[in-house]
Amino acid sequence: MNNISPLSFVHPEAKLGDNITVGAFVYIDRNVEIGDNCFIHSHTSILSGSRIGRNNRIYEGCIIAATPQDFRWKGEESYVEIGDDNRIREHVIINRSIHEGKSTRIGNGTCVMAQSHIGHDTQIGNKCVLGNGVKIAGDCKIGDCCIFSSGSLVHEGYEVGDYVLVKGGCRVTGNVPPYVVMAHNPISYFGVNSYILGQAGMSDEKIDDIAKCYRHIYQSSIALHHACKRICEDVDDSEQRRNILDFLKRNKYDIAAKIAFDEY
Question: DSSP letters of the chain?
Answer without folding.
Answer: --EE-TTSEE-TT-EE-SS-EE-TT-EE-SS-EE-TT-EE-TT-EE-TTEEE-SS-EE-TT-EEEEPPS-TT--S---EEEE-SS-EE-TT-EEEPPSSTT-EEEE-SS-EE-TT-EE-TT-EE-SS-EE-TT-EE-TT-EE-TT-EE-TT-EE-TT-EE-TT-EE-TT-EE-S-B-TTEEEETTTTEEEEE-HHHHHHTT--HHHHHHHHHHHHHHHSSSS-HHHHHHHHHHHS---HHHHHHHHHHHHTTT--TT-------
